[in-house]
Design brief:
This protein is α+β, with helices and mostly antiparallel strands. The chain has 14 helices and 9 strands. The longest helix has 33 residues. Bound molecules: protoporphyrin IX containing FE (HEM). Protoporphyrin IX containing FE binds next to α4, α10 and α13.
Length: 389
């Protein structure tokens, strides 16, 4: 393994910053051979370039036959999730109430989001065995690539069971179609082209399950970790919305998106067919475009301007279909955790683990119910009084 590769494994963010600073042009080679765009303005331009972003989105792999089919599935799932935010909030209240006082993260964050979304992913009328295999998959390494070989092997088995159960459901639901989508599986089934194999529909469902729960859960984890490491005040001195926006800037789960490189790109000898990576992380840490980019400072979002390129959900033609509901789900979850509770962390580290994105290293979240002191008792009734004319 090369020195660069070892450095990447140890601390990917310092390693990529190092490569960018050492590069002579706007584009440089990553240790595994792909090209990476180092300049933030160029990164944004690449994501918006009609030639680079021609054809189909790599997000769906080979599961769908055309770009219109990709767009239809993305929108159907986005609309379903958006319409069911009130149900998510309801599920969240129960999931947060069941969280132990000391919980192991980031797994607890993924589990919390999965519990709150369980009925939205597969509605309660779905056979228990299939809903159970979804829960097992969420906890067993299917959402975030685990570090050890045996864990990855176990995750493959769980994924296989999930796909088999969901494919059976697809066959049943096709025989008795619902008039309105009841869950993400109905939304996928209703939007994908006729004649698609049951197993392919199940794979699409599994792809979206992962694309929703993993980044939402990890961003919740980054938000509580970074906020707790930067203040001991309770409540936090910033609105939750700023904390989440800043966490998505400082530690974007999707830290690298890839595109097929056009030949002769930039000032380097890029060959057609090579891979061009665009890093939202680098764009968010460009000192020419962001003030104090390496600091976690939620209060920067108090200012309406002065922000550099902000790409946690990508940009351009293939931008995240679920960006706006994602923001609502993350903010709602962090708010539910912080509400009426004092949050502290131990074992926290701001360096990520590389596992299909920037994943926080293990930490413990301590959540204690806030004591109502005499002052609170005295002012609380007035706080809830409606405004008088
Ligand atoms: C923190 C949460 C999330 C993050 C950080 C995130 C990030 C991203 C990014 C960066 C892309 C673009 C990849 C590229 O340019 O190649 C993407 C695509 C996509 N995301 Fe998300 N996502 C999140 C949540 C969600 C949610 C909640 C949904 C569904 C409701 C969703 C559905 C999609 C879909 C369908 C695409 C493919 C869009 C297309 O190619 O047409 N994502 N996501």
């Amino acid at each position: 393994m090369s020195t660069e590769m070892r450095r990447f494994r140890r601390d990917p963010l310092t390693a990529i910053e190092h490569l960018r600073h050492r590069a002579r042009g706007d584009v440089f080679r990553l240790p595994w051979g792909d090209w990476c765009v180092g300049d933030a303005d160029l990164a944004r331009a690449v994501l918006r370039d009609p030639v680079v972003n021609d054809g189909m989105s790599a997000f769906f792999g080979a599961l769908l036959p055309s770009r219109p089919a990709q767009v239809a599935v993305g929108r159907a799932v986005r609309d379903l999730v958006r319409a069911r935010v009130p149900d998510f909030r309801h599920g969240l209240a129960a999931a947060v109430a069941g969280l132990p006082a000391d919980s192991a993260w980031p797994e607890a964050g993924i589990d919390l989001v999965h519990r709150a979304m369980a009925d939205l992913l597969l509605h309660p009328g779905t056979p228990d065995a299939t809903r159970w295999s979804l829960a097992r998959a969420a906890r067993g390494g299917v959402l975030i690539r685990p570090p050890r070989v045996w864990q990855r092997a176990r995750a493959e088995v769980l994924r296989g069971r999930l796909l088999a159960g969901v494919a059976e459901q697809v066959a049943e639901r096709r025989a008795r179609a619902a008039s309105e989508p009841r869950d993400v599986l109905d939304a996928v089934l209703g939007a994908c082209p006729d004649g698609m194999a049951d197993r392919t529909v199940a794979e699409l469902f599994a792809l979206l399950f992962r694309a929703i729960v993993a980044p939402v859960g990890c961003t919740v984890a980054w938000s509580v970790l970074l906020a707790c490491l930067h203040t001991s005040a309770s409540p936090w001195p910033w609105p939750v919305d700023w904390v989440v926006r800043e966490a998505l800037r400082h530690r974007p789960m999707a830290w690298m998106v890839v595109r097929p490189a056009p030949a002769g790109f930039g000032d380097v000898p890029v060959r057609s067919g090579e891979v061009l990576s665009v890093s939202p992380y680098l764009a968010h840490h460009d000192e020419r475009l962001w003030a104090d980019p390496d600091a976690f400072r939620p209060d920067r979002w108090a200012e309406p301007s002065g922000h550099g390129p902000y790409l946690p959900f990508g940009a351009g033609r293939f931008t995240c279909a679920g960006a706006s509901p994602a923001q609502v789900l993350i903010t709602g979850t962090v708010a539910a955790l912080a509400d009426d509770a004092r949050l502290t962390v131990t074992g926290g580290d701001t360096r990520p683990v590389m596992a299909d994105g920037l994943v926080p290293r293990p930490f413990t979240l301590h959540r204690r119910a806030k004591e109502v002191n005499d002052h609170d008792r005295c002012v609380a009734p007035h706080l809830h009084e409606p405004d008088r004319p």
